[in-house]
Amino acid sequence: MTGSTTTATVCVAGCGPAGAVLGLLLARAGVEVVVLEKHADFLRDFRGDTVHPSTLDVLDELGLIDRFLALPHHKVSTVGFVRDGRRLDVADFSTLGLRYPYIAFVPQWDLLHLLTSEAARYPHFRLLLQAEAHDVVRQDGRVTGVRFRDPDGEHEVRAHLTVAADGRHSAVRRASGLRPREFGAPMDVLQFRISRRDTDPDEGYHLRMAAGKSVAVINRGAYWNIAYMIRKGGHDDLRRAGIQTLRDDVASLVGFLADRVGEVTGFDDTRFLEVRLDRLRRWHVPGLLLIGDAAHAMSPIAGVGINLAVQDAVAAANLLTGHLRRAQAKGKPVPDRATAAVQRRRWAPTVATQALQRSAQRFGIDRALRGQAKPPDFSAIARLPFVRALMSRLLGVGVRPEHVRVPPMPPRGQSVEGQGR
Prior knowledge:
Blueprint: E1 5-13, H1 17-28, E2 33-37, E3 50-51, H2 53-61, H3 65-69, E4 74-76, E5 78-83, E6 86-92, E7 103-105, H4 108-119, E8 125-129, E9 132-139, E10 142-150, E11 153-164, H5 171-176, E12 181-182, E13 187-195, E14 205-210, E15 213-219, E16 223-231, H6 235-241, H7 243-253, E17 271-273, E18 278-279, E19 284-285, E20 288-290, H8 305-330, H9 336-369, H10 379-382, H11 385-396
Parallel strand pairs: 1-2, 1-11, 2-8, 5-14, 11-20
Antiparallel strand pairs: 3-7, 4-7, 5-6, 9-10, 10-11, 12-18, 13-16, 13-17, 14-15, 15-16, 19-20
Pfam families: FAD_binding_3 (PF01494)
Domain FAD-binding: 8-328
Protein name: FAD-dependent oxidoreductase
């Protein structure tokens, strides 16, 4: 099998939320698609697991919402912060009149398995695991596919369109020569779990700050997911200081967890996340489109990365399916104006969301981590009804929510009328 070449209309590098949604949407529209995933499965902890209301709408439009809600999950309808021991909600999705007025926290592997299992019902979908894209194939100035490695050796996928959905460290982006503009981030993050008790406060997703320290605390039902923020580049200093420093900071910020911080026995119980915030000026070259974190790495603030990536995938499917069907039928290349249209569609939502994250970093987290006597007090502004309504809309729905516009083809052995909703 070494040296084999596979052909498809579309090759998607990366089977995270963006790649999985795009692969499903194209396959159900009758477009031949190969999705490459470098890992052997989806079982990795501390991956993004926040599914926002607008993504829940997409799952509903795909007929998958009932199966999604049958997965183990926890719902949170508010996002806020705690200052001087008092909690203030800056977003409340229950006020928006949405069909799904909450963020659903679900293990990412369950979401990806749901999406790829549904995609596998269509004859035009193929998922290759342990297939790591590392280079692009070029011909006459166009990207015409990717080179990937698997346990059997080196292979190629030749495609009319290649889509890089392989994350913030995208190998396809690097091979294409595109370089993102770095906006910087004042912090990195250590993630870990602490058990939750029935007597704990009924708090959803909230940020706690004090001079020199900051944590995000997320109610996951059976446990609290803690995102402990450290100054950019300060991971080694923290490790030298010892795990008790982390425990003491968490205990001081989240008092009701003080008797449980010992559950974090050492740094092996944590996962380090290097926070990046960047954006490509150009998301496409002839034959190649980049979406999700490959095009715009998001900060973990408010957990909007999955939502932006899924919205990119839906927009790409809506705008490109007609061109891809013609390429599949007649062998014509996908015009550059078509991939440019995807960037135009998603540019404003990306810029606006990153601007919000940059403001939160600069005026909140950065000041706290610098050790200022007191983090800034935004409570008076956050209490204004129009501010809370705006934040609820921005965090829950986004600037330009996308909806599935491409009608499906029948899956194997089934009429369209037989597919879910």
